[in-house]
Amino acid sequence: MGEEGTEGTVHLLCLAASSGVPLFCRSSRGGAPARQQVGPWISGSPKLKGLPFSVIGSLNGVHMFGQNLEVQLNSARTEDTTVVWRSFHDSITLIVLSSEEGTSELRLERLLQMVFGAMVLLVGLEELTNISNVERLKKELRASYGLIDSLLGDSELIGDLTQCVDCVVPPEGSLLQEALSGFAEAAATNFASLLASGRVVVATESWWRLGTPEAVLLPWLVGSLPPQAARDYPVYLPHGSPTVPHRLLTLTLLPGLELCLLCGPRPPLSQLDPQLLERWWQPMLDPLRACLPLGPQALPAGFPLHTDILGLLLLHLELKRCLFTVEPSRDKEPSPEQRRCALRSFYTLVTTVHFPPEPGQQEDKVEDAAQQTQVPRACYLVSGTEEPGTGWRLVALQLGPRRLLLLLSAQSPVYGLRGLATHTLQALTPLL
């Protein structure tokens, strides 16, 4: 199995669908964040940072040619590149090219969905569907570059692929939940969350009811912004309010730990004075400090995991939340980057080949009962079998709304994979 995201380049093109005029191009190389590599598209430039106009014209032209013949071109593969096209509202065309080893169409399709969601989040749907001034739209889209670049880069999060919210499990979640609910009521908003490195620690019920993709993109946006004590950020909600902006207020409680509020014209940021923060959060200082290492770990310190586990991904497909970590046994090979690549690649495999469609992605047709009884509940993959004691094991298990993927060391016996996964899922079930 190829390791998705290991080597190669990802190019993202955004064009006006009606005219084919490029709006921007972003790229990442070797998993590096694109904002460190590539600038915006410049009108009149002979290239889009490595992509000749002839290539851009051909990619857009073949897609438009197919549409004129009522043929929908979704993807194509060459010897070393995968290309995926996607049109949104007959106004914006996004094209992604990836030469990364083992990259999947599912990954690229969901990347384009997230990228368009990021554009709506920061520019609004009206500007994208009624393009009256291309040059003005290009300038406005620059506000989305940081978020788009973070989606293209090698992130420690996985919500871009799973379309579930990255979460962590705090040691004293009930105390933090009570403080958050009280603070949100005092600030006159129903939408509030506490984030650790772009992952949700606790949130109000209304925040959890946010739709896709904003439920994933809002924490991702906060995690991609430079550190700041407080922010008042205008955002649109791609699912809930794509044409009317809301205000995203953020307050840094501790470095890496941010309080987020989603609200209308009120309250002004100045009303969230230190006294209000002190009243609700000063007594929570120790529980807040305990959340600081949770970003990459996801699970509380001391949570019992089998020593063979090198990484895990737990999804709750109905709640659209997930726990993702590659921190267990950090002293063992492979590296955290390789672990993330292996789990992401395994997720695309089991999602596209083995397990039934996730909620909201079912086919229109209804499968007959005989087919439904043959849906697998577990699968596994073994790598490095040519040399004993090398490589790793991957196992996936689905039980009800929960799906667990584990990355295990080569020492883990194949005959025990399902039992280990079942035991781990039982231990994790109360957390998510």
Question: What report would you give on this structure?
Answer:
The protein has helices at 53-68, 105-123, 125-129, 134-141, 145-152, 159-162, 173-186, 205-208, 214-224, 274-281, 285-289, 294-297, 336-354, 369-372, 417-428, and strands at 9-16, 22-29, 47-48, 51-52, 75-77, 82-88, 92-98, 165-166, 191-196, 199-203, 230-237, 241-254, 257-263, 309-316, 321-325, 378-382, 392-399, 402-409. Mean pLDDT is 85; it is low at 1-6, 31-48 and 362-371. The protein is flat, with a radius of gyration of 22 Å. The protein is an alpha+beta fold and 432 residues long.
Shape, please?
flat
**Biggest pleated sheet:** 6 strands, mixed
Q: What is the CA-based Rg, rounded?
A: 22 Å
How much helicity do the residues have?
A: 25-40%
Strand content: 25-35%
- What is the number of strand segments? 18
Strand order of the largest sheet: 8-15-14-18-17-16
The end-to-end span amounts to 29 Å
Oligomer: single chain
| Coarse structural class | alpha+beta
Short description:
With 432 residues, this protein is of the alpha+beta class.
Main traits of this protein?
single chain; 33% helix; five-stranded antiparallel beta sheet; disordered N terminus; alpha+beta; 432 residues; six-stranded mixed beta sheet
Topology readout:
Elements: E1 9-16, E2 22-29, E3 47-48, E4 51-52, H1 53-68, E5 75-77, E6 82-88, E7 92-98, H2 105-123, H3 125-129, H4 134-141, H5 145-152, H6 159-162, E8 165-166, H7 173-186, E9 191-196, E10 199-203, H8 205-208, H9 214-224, E11 230-237, E12 241-254, E13 257-263, H10 274-281, H11 285-289, H12 294-297, E14 309-316, E15 321-325, H13 336-354, H14 369-372, E16 378-382, E17 392-399, E18 402-409, H15 417-428
